[in-house]
Structure formats: C-alpha cells, structure tokens
Amino acid sequence: MNMKSDSSHQRWDELDHQLLHALENDGRAPFSRIAAHLGVSDQTIARRYRRLVADIGLRVVVVTDAERLGQTWVLRLRCAPDAADALSKALARRPDTAWIALTSGGTEVVCAIRFRTRGEHEEMILGKLPKTPSIMEIRAHQVLWRFFGGSNSWLAKRLPQVAEAFPAGPEPTSPAPEPISTEDEPLVATLEENGRATLAELRRATGHSESVVRHRLDRLLASGALYIDVQYDQTILGDTTRAILWITAAPAALDQVGRALATHPEVTFAGATAGSCNLMAFIVCRDSTTMYRYLSTTLGSLEGIQHIETAPVLRLVKQLTYDEHAPAAQ
What we know:
Pfam families: AsnC_trans_reg, HTH_24, HTH_AsnC-type. InterPro entries: AsnC-type_HTH_dom, Dimeric_a/b-barrel, Tscrpt_reg_AsnC-like, Tscrpt_reg_AsnC/Lrp_C, WH-like_DNA-bd_sf, WH_DNA-bd_sf. Keywords: DNA-binding, Transcription, Transcription regulation. This is AsnC family transcriptional regulator. With about 325 residues, this protein is an alpha+beta fold. It contains 11 helices and 10 strands. It has helices at about 15-25, 30-40, 40-55, 80-90, 120-130, 155-160, 185-195, 200-205, 210-225, 255-265, 290-300, and strands spanning about 60-65, 70-80, 95-105, 110-115, 135-150, 225-230, 240-250, 265-275, 280-285, 305-320. Helix 7 crosses helix 8 (about 200-205) and helix 8 packs across helix 9 (about 210-225). The longest helix has 15 residues, at about 40-55. The radius of gyration is 20 Å and the shape is globular. The N and C termini lie close together (about 10 Å).
C-alpha cells in the first residue's frame, strides 16, 4: 500500500475532495453520474480518479460488515521493540485483518480482525497468539457497536462543504444482514479486491448472469451484510497526526459519549467495546497541538468520561489491504 504523506496535500482541490466524498457515499457510482452531480465531464472524473489512485493509494473495496455481526475484535499485542515490525507484517498478510497500527513507542501492535465464526477467534486469541514468543501481553476488545465508521463518510464531517455535492447512498433497509452463503464467496472475493468491478467481471468470477449478480449484490448491500469502503491517505487534507483512544465511560453515559464521538470531525472510527475499556476511537489531527486541543477541550468537555488512554500511531501498516512490497503507510 503506497501512501505518500508530504506537504503536497495543498495541490488537491475542491473537485478532488468532492470526488472522494462521492465515492464514500456510493463507491460503485458510474463516473457519468458523479460527473453530472459535480458539473464536469466524465473524462475529468476518470482522470482525477486515476490520479488519486496513483498518488494517494485510493482504492474502492467491498467489505463484509463483521462489526454489525459482532465478529470484529481489536487486539493490543505488547511485544519487544525489535519484534513489532515483523509481527505486524505477518498479521498484515492475513486476509482477515482489517487494519494494523504500531503504537506506544513501537512496542505495541494494534490489530483489527474480522472473524467469521466463534471458533476462529478462540483459536487465534487462546491458541496461536499466546504461543508466539515475541508477544508479551495480549488484550482483546470485541467491538459491540459501531457509532461511526464503515460506510459513513468521514470526509463529509471533515469538509462539510463537500456534503451537498453528491447525495448519500441509501442506508441498509433490513433489520439483520443477509447471510453470505458459500455461493456468494466468489462475488465477495472479487469485490474485496476491486469494489468497482463491472457486472461483466462479476459474471465471469461467479458464473452467473449479470442480472443475477446485480440482484444478489443489491440484496447484500441493502441488508448491510456488505458495505463499500474507500481507502486513501487521509493526509490529503494535511492531517498528519493519528492516535487510537481507549476510553472508559460510565455505563449510563456510554451511548451518549459514543454518539458524540461520531460527530467529531477528528474521529474516523468510534465503537463500543468489551474489554478493559468500553469505547475506542481512531482520530486524525493536523498536528500534535491540534490533537492536544481536541483531547483537552472537545473530548474533555464530554460528561461521563472516566479515563482516556491516548496511543499515538507511529505507523499504519495495513488499512483493509496490504502490499508487502510497497512502502509502509506513514
């Protein structure tokens, strides 16, 4: 995953931001529809899209919503400093890891894993990881509820002016996600690699007609079993400082604090967790001074918070996908 994090963010203009927002709202929208909403030509959108792919690692992928199924766990693995890099890369090669970061002076690997079954998470947390010599401590947090993240558009919070340029996609309409069957796996696997794969490409991958593929994909998206996610280097906006917050809130204030976090422009993910804390959030800020102001004022003013642990992210190793031959994300 090739992500560049220099001062070149100033070259990106409003149209780039609007295109990213449009993709966050509907990652499979045809360029013609995006162009029509933004008042430019199809060719302009295609050209801008290719530039964003090349320069900031833009990728559109379809993701199984394991958090809605209660099957996402965030693991905090404390290890020796000289082992953290190798451990993070080994975990990044696993297809079930969603994102991985190095924090706390390079001695902690934080990893989100999407398990499909109860047996899988027990095997990993109780079996494989404790047998890894370099791991000195394991803290496991199950994500119980997502307040912000997934298909939500972070850019619309960060740049409210872009929110009116392209309408938000429909919310899931079913009370429970549509089960993903064995027959769906070729469809899902193809979209995990390229969320904008054409119907013709999906027909070849699945062996089903384009109408069948379209109907099945629409059902999975509408039920919330799948969602479309957009991956790119958020330093395009000049936000170069990242941190993971481990928050303990009074039980009666848990939902209120989580919903407040979801509105903060700095927050790219917020969820309720089971474990040593009951909330976690991933934040991005312009610099350390901005982060201090956020922690001491915006977050500090929320009633019900009892404790906050701030873990600065030294390096983002994986964000949905991982290329071991590409430079690590900074």
